[in-house]
Design a protein that fits this description.
Blueprint (H helix, E strand, L loop, with lengths): L23 H24 L4 E3 L5 H11 L3 E5 L6 H6 L5 E4 L2 H7 L4 E4 L12 H8 L7 E5 L6 H17 L1 E5 L2 H12 L9 E4 L6 H7 L2 E4 L3 H9 L4 E3 L8 H12 L2 E3 L7 H8 L5 H14 L4 H13 L7 H8 L5
Parallel strand pairs: 1-2, 2-3, 3-4, 5-6, 5-8, 6-7, 8-9, 9-10
């Protein structure tokens, strides 16, 4: 994607440090890490950036070490409630930290200025809900359920939809993001619906740039608990039934628990999500008071100006100015100064 966008990119020798097998990488990975530090030093010394921005990951370890040696300020952003191992290892090297959840600041406890910015997302300001529904062919007064499982373990969602599809689309319109592997099957399921119900079901392999339109048109979202997913859903003020991906260190489970605790979402465990659970989730559309309360809580969590807030901190570091006060960043995250 980086090359296709025409952006220059230089790789370090370092690869993932997740090796658990007793093979050559168990020895080679520490060597690659050690060699990546002078490599990063050389690149940063040559380019002399005004600041470094990182979202963590193993590649950030040599880069932030090099930046500290060269006196280049760095901003670290972490989107999950539970920070990963590499983030915990390097947070103390950053000049400032930005996070999506306040609990992450407490978990890191670096002594650095830590800002709750939310997760940077694409701008959703220009997306009009009525226009989005018209574009998607959703009739006035009909409710729209958006279902997407992200890039991981989408099969769980696809199976649940297939199990109860006629009953589900009898209740509401459905946009279902299937992934490439599930798209053909979903199209076949659509063709087996009664003729009058087929227009209620719209499977898509991916939405990509059309995701803001689907979110603007939706009344309820069923999805995973990735940081970006939660950020876009709350920026639109949508209630959510969140099914956290059960692996990847439990990050999504912690993200989902935070959202559910606020009242903006209902949490369903991955191994409990099936057709019956899907119908129970869709029943929220028949509970106006509950739906409205969840929407209000979701809107309260939303940080539509997160990208602008992170940029504000980063530019202050690059220009060697005093860091902004938390109240200023809070206003920007809410979209008040973005």
């Amino acid at each position: 994607m980086v090359h296709e966008a025409g952006l220059p990119m230089r790789r370090l020798l370092l690869r993932s440090l997740r090796t658990v097998d007793r093979d050559v990488h168990l020895v080679a990975d520490p060597i690659r890490l050690a060699l990546s530090v002078p490599q990063a030093l050389m690149l940063l010394a040559r380019d002399r950036p005004d600041a470094v921005f990182t979202t963590g990951g193993y590649v950030a370890i040599p880069v932030l070490i090099a930046a500290r040696v060269l006196g280049i300020p760095a901003l670290l952003w972490e989107g999950n409630v539970i920070p990963g191992r590499s983030v915990r290892a390097i947070a103390g090297l950053a000049a400032a930290v930005a996070v999506s959840f306040a609990a992450t600041c407490r978990a890191l406890a670096t002594g650095r200025r830590c800002y709750e910015t939310g997760t940077p997302i694409r701008s959703l300001r220009a997306v009009d809900g009525l226009a989005a529904r018209d574009r998607l062919g959703i009739p006035p007064g009909r409710r729209l359920l958006l279902i997407f499982g992200g890039s991981q373990a989408v099969r769980r969602f696809n199976d649940a939809v297939a199990d109860v599809l006629p009953e589900l689309v009898g209740r509401c319109h459905v946009i279902h993001v299937t992934g490439d592997d599930g798209y053909a099957e979903a199209l076949g399921n659509r063709e087996r619906l009664p003729t009058e119900l087929r227009a209620h079901y719209r499977p898509e392999p991916f939405l990509r740039e059309d995701m803001p339109i689907a979110l603007a048109a939706a009344d309820l979202v069923i999805g995973r608990a990735g940081s970006s997913t939660i950020a876009e859903v709350t920026a639109m003020g949508l209630p959510m039934v969140v099914v956290p991906y059960p692996h990847a260190g439990g990050h999504q489970r912690a993200n989902a628990a935070q959202m559910a605790a606020s009242g903006a979402a209902r949490l369903v465990e991955d191994d409990e999500f099936d057709g019956r659970a899907l119908l129970a989730a869709a029943a929220l559309l028949d509970e106006p008071a509950t739906h409205a309360a969840m929407a209000a809580q979701s809107r309260a969590l939303g940080r539509p100006g997160a990208a602008q807030a992170v940029a504000t901190i980063l530019v202050a570091l690059a220009e060697r100015r005093p860091l902004p006060v938390p109240g200023e960043i809070e206003r920007i995250t809410r979209g008040e100064d973005a």
